[in-house]
C-alpha cells in the first residue's frame, strides 16, 4: 500500500464502478464480476508491493475466512497494513459507491425527462401559427347554428310543409341538451333549422375561445339530433347524418343582444308568412313552385295576409305561436313529483311515497321577445351593463 497514492486508489475504485463490476448488496456470478472494489484495492496493493506484473487467480474462500483476512488487513495484524489516510480513502470509496448505486436510477430518469422536454420544445414552435380567437371581454357571446343543406334533408325525410312540428320539437330537444351539457348559457332562441345560444357576458369557459364555443355547441347539437331522432320520427328512418354549421358573434351591450334576438324573431315571422302562403298556393291551388314564386313576387306582408284570408280563409294570427314566433329557451325552476319506495323500520314491505323536487331546467316558450314585456318579466337574464 505504501507505493499506492490516493489518486491511484481513487482511479482504481472509479474504474471498477464505472465498468459495472460492483454494486452494493449483490452476488457476482460471472468471472468478470467476482470482486468488489475493496478486494480490487487489496489485490492492487499486493501486486504493487510484491512486484507481480500479472494478475493472480483469487480463489473463493468461505465468508469466515474472508472476514478474518479483512480483520487482519484493517487491524494491522496481517500482511497488509493500511495507514490512516489510506483507510480514509477506502471508506470514502465505499460510501461513494453506495450513494452512486442509489442515485443512478433517478439520474437516468432525469436524463430521459430532459431529452423528452428537449424533443417537445423542438417542435413546440408550431403553436405560434395558431390564431388568437379569444372573444372580447365583458361582451355577450352568441353561437348560432344552422342546418347545412336542410332543404334537401327535409325533402329526403318527408318533412311536412310549411312547418313540421316534429322537426321543430326535435330541434328544441337538442337545444335543451346543449344548454344542459354546456356551461354559462343563459338563454337560446330557435326557428326553422337554426338555433342561437347566448353565453354569459362574464363567462370564462375555455378562456372565451370562439372555436371552443362553436365546436362544442355544434357537435353536441348534431349528436343530439341523431340520438333523439326516433323519439320524434318513429316511422321515418334517418337516411344520412345531419350537419350544422356555426358562427360566433360578440355583442357589447344589453341593447345589442336584445336587438340581435329581435332580428332573429322578425326573420322567423317574415319567413314563416312567406312559406305559409307559398305552400298554400302549391298544395291547394296546385301551382308549381315557379308559379307560386311568381305570384308572390313583390308582395308585402299585408298582401300575403290578404291572400291567406281571402283565398284560403286562414287568419295568420291564429297560426300556432311556435310557427310564428319561434322558440325561446330560458332557465326555470320546475317542481317534479316522483314516487319513491320507502321501507319504514320494523316493516317488511315498503310504501310508495310521492317526493317533490325542484330542479332548474331549460323551458320552451313561444312568446314575443321584440317588445319590452319579456325582458321585464325575466330580468335575471340580462346582466347590468355597468
UniProtKB/TrEMBL annotation:
Q: Which residues form the tRNAHis guanylyltransferase catalytic domain?
A: 123-252
> Which is a GO BP term held by this UniProt record?
tRNA modification
Q: Tell me the superkingdom of the source.
A: Eukaryota
The residue ranges of the Thg1 C-terminal domain are 255-371
The reply on keyword Nucleotide-binding is: yes
- Which of the seven top EC classes does this enzyme belong to? transferase
- How far does the signal peptide extend, from start to end residue? none
The record's section on Pfam families has: Thg1 (PF04446), Thg1C (PF14413)
MF annotations from Gene Ontology = GTP binding; magnesium ion binding; tRNA guanylyltransferase activity
Reactions mediated catalytically? a 5'-end ribonucleotide-tRNA(His) + GTP + ATP + H2O = a 5'-end phospho-guanosine-ribonucleotide-tRNA(His) + AMP + 2 diphosphate + H(+)
Keywords, alphabetical: GTP-binding, Magnesium, Metal-binding, Nucleotide-binding, Nucleotidyltransferase, Transferase, tRNA processing
Q: What Enzyme Commission number does this protein have?
A: 2.7.7.79
Required cofactors, per record? Mg(2+)
Complex and partners: Homotetramer. Interacts with MFN1 and MFN2; functions as a guanyl-nucleotide exchange factor/GEF for MFN2 and also probably MFN1.
Family recorded in the similarity comment? Belongs to the tRNA(His) guanylyltransferase family.
**What does the function comment of this entry state?**
Adds a GMP to the 5'-end of tRNA(His) after transcription and RNase P cleavage. This step is essential for proper recognition of the tRNA and for the fidelity of protein synthesis. Also functions as a guanyl-nucleotide exchange factor/GEF for the MFN1 and MFN2 mitofusins thereby regulating mitochondrial fusion. By regulating both mitochondrial dynamics and bioenergetic function, it contributes to cell survival following oxidative stress.
| Name used for this protein in its record | Probable tRNA(His) guanylyltransferase
Q: Which organism is it from?
A: Monodelphis domestica
Q: Which gene encodes it?
A: THG1L
Amino acid at each position: 500500500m505504501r507505493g499506492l497514492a490516493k489518486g491511484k486508489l481513487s482511479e482504481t475504485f472509479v474504474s471498477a464502478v464505472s465498468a459495472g463490476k460492483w454494486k452494493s448488496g449483490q452476488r457476482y456470478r460471472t468471472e468478470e464480476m467476482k470482486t468488489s472494489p475493496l478486494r480490487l484495492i487489496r489485490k492492487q496493493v499486493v501486486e504493487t508491493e510484491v512486484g507481480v506484473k500479472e494478475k493472480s487467480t483469487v480463489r473463493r474462500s468461505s465468508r469466515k475466512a474472508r472476514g478474518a483476512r479483512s480483520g487482519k488487513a484493517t487491524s494491522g495484524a496481517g500482511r497488509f497494513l493500511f495507514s490512516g489516510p489510506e483507510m480514509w480513502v477506502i471508506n470514502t470509496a465505499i460510501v461513494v459507491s453506495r450513494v452512486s448505486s442509489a442515485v443512478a436510477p433517478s439520474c437516468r430518469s432525469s436524463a430521459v425527462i430532459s431529452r423528452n422536454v428537449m424533443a417537445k420544445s423542438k417542435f413546440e414552435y408550431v403553436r405560434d401559427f395558431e390564431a388568437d380567437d379569444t372573444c372580447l371581454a365583458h361582451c355577450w357571446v352568441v353561437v348560432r347554428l344552422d342546418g347545412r343543406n336542410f332543404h334537401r334533408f327535409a325533402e329526403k325525410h318527408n318533412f311536412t310543409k310549411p312547418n313540421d312540428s316534429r322537426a321543430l320539437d326535435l330541434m328544441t330537444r337538442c337545444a335543451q341538451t346543449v344548454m344542459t351539457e354546456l356551461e354559462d348559457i343563459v338563454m337560446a332562441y330557435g326557428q326553422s333549422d337554426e338555433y342561437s345560444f347566448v353565453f354569459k357576458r362574464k363567462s370564462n369557459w375555455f378562456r372565451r375561445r370562439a372555436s371552443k364555443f362553436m365546436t362544442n355547441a355544434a357537435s353536441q347539437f348534431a349528436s343530439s339530433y341523431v340520438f333523439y331522432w326516433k323519439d320524434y320520427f318513429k316511422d321515418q328512418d334517418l337516411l344520412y347524418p345531419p350537419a350544422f354549421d356555426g358562427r360566433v358573434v360578440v355583442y357589447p351591450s344589453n341593447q345589442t343582444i336584445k336587438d340581435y334576438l329581435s332580428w332573429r324573431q322578425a326573420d322567423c315571422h317574415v319567413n314563416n308568412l312567406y312559406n305559409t302562403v307559398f305552400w298554400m298556393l302549391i298544395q291547394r291551388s296546385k301551382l308549381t313552385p315557379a308559379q307560386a314564386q311568381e305570384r308572390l313576387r313583390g308582395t308585402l306582408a299585408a298582401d300575403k295576409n290578404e291572400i291567406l284570408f281571402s283565398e284560403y280563409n286562414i287568419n295568420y294570427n291564429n297560426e300556432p305561436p311556435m310557427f310564428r314566433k319561434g322558440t325561446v329557451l330560458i332557465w326555470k325552476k320546475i317542481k317534479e313529483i316522483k314516487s319513491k319506495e320507502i321501507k319504514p323500520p320494523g316493516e317488511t314491505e315498503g310504501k310508495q311515497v310521492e317526493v317533490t323536487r325542484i330542479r332548474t331546467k331549460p323551458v320552451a316558450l313561444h312568446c314575443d321577445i321584440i317588445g319590452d314585456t319579456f325582458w321585464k318579466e325575466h330580468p335575471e337574464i340580462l346582466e347590468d351593463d355597468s
